[in-house]
Amino acid sequence: MRFHSTRGNPESITASEAINRGLAPDGGLYIPEAWPAFQPEDFDGLNTVAEVANRLIAPFFAGDPLENDLAEICHQALNFPIPTRWLESDRLAMLELFHGPTAAFKDVGARFLAACMQRLQGDAAKPLNILVATSGDTGGAVAAAFDGVPGIRVVVLYPKGLVSPRQEHQLCCWGENIVSLRVAGRFDDCQALVKQAFNDGALREQFRLSSANSISIGRLLPQMSYYAHSSLQYWRETGKRLNYIIPTGNVGNSLACIWARKLGLPIGEIRLATNANRTIPDYLQSGEWQPRESVATLASAMDVGAPSNMERLFHLHPQVDSLRQAIAVQSVSDEEIRQEIQRVWQRWQEMICPHTATAFKVWEDLPDDLRQLPWNLVATAHAAKFDSIVEPLLGRQVPLPAALADILERPARRHDIAPTLEALVPFLA
Ligand SMILES: *Cc1c(COP(=O)(O)O)cnc(C)c1O
């Protein structure tokens, strides 16, 4: 299997090369050249997320230098539980993506990517600089996944004042090979800075650069595996498709679900929940794509005004009508997020994070006929990561998961920079 750019450059490369490069040279994103077709029965006898992932991702690594390592990579990366927990039988479940080392779904992609890159490094003379722009959770997950990996440095860029204190700590508490930069700007400025670095030919001559943002194919492919695993589980039990509501920012997580359905997994409806950043809902309504600056919300990891993975979605659905048939999108306000956190606690005694709350609101607002279907609401982070928002709303403490407690004990360090290339360059090696 080979991958090519969304922008039409005819060059095609293997998964490993796409992982090493991150962004295509023409500025596009890598997409697979073909879509393998699966039947649910192709996964018979496979029960863990890692086993399902290995079968699902195998065609994408066919002919790749890492082909024979794939099973080991899946088992190394996907070594924590990803349960579907039912709140109301046959009607409402939560897909808990927050049992990894940094308590958010980004651990899945980051750990898979790290497992791949570790094996691809060989003994290169210069270190590889992985640039990560983060609105909160990506940076922590990537830093944790690469902490102490020889030959690889991670440079994390995050927006000053726009991540929660606990998130910030997770960005800044790692070993020598992780550099944390607090940028005077928003997430979009961080992301633009990373793109600028990649598009700078001279810089790329001087430094080995790679990315670990949700544009990396090495993060998207493994994210399909929890949709495959959870939908297969339900299919085996009921013969019915499971439907998903996905809190969405840069569209990495939701794209993985759309891809998994395209590959033949038993997935029904897919609904995206955004916060007050309305770029995607406005597009579905008006048919005009108008990326813009992001606005700050309580679900800060979804504060994206120019979601980059949309470029991959446009490739699948060039016409807005076709996209309207594939997905639905709803925007959720901060006020609704607050209400939902309280309502979910009162009704089910579940503590949810502000991102997960957007999915609950979308479920709450479903028309009656759709509400009859079985829905899996994607819980993207643990409530304890957003204690400063959740605790005052519930009037009680959120118990800290053990992994998070360990991380918060480590000392933290960071540097402040302006959102410019000149400010970034001194931190590359
Ligand atoms: C990153 C993130 C999201 C948004 O995911 P995308 O792939 O960017 O759409 C939602 N919730 C949490 C907790 C996140 O960290």
Protein model, in words:
- This protein is of the alpha/beta class.
- The chain has helices at residues 15-21, 49-57, 70-77, 106-120, 137-146, 165-172, 187-198, 201-206, 217-238, 252-262, 279-286, 310-316, 320-326, 334-348, 354-364, 368-371, 387-394, 402-408, 421-424; strands at 3-5, 30-32, 84-88, 92-96, 128-133, 152-159, 178-183, 208-211, 242-247, 267-274, 328-331, 375-379, 415-417.
- The strands form three sheets. Strands 3-4-12-9-10-11 form a six-stranded mixed beta sheet. A five-stranded parallel beta sheet has the order 8-5-6-7-13, sandwiched between helices.
- Strand 9 (242-247), helix 10 and strand 10 form a beta-alpha-beta unit.
- The longest helix is centred in the middle third of the chain and has 22 residues, at 217-238.
- It is globular.
- The two termini are 33 Å apart.
- Bound molecules: pyridoxal-5'-phosphate.
- The site of pyridoxal-5'-phosphate (PLP) has 18 residues, from helix 10.
- Pyridoxal-5'-phosphate binds next to helix 10.
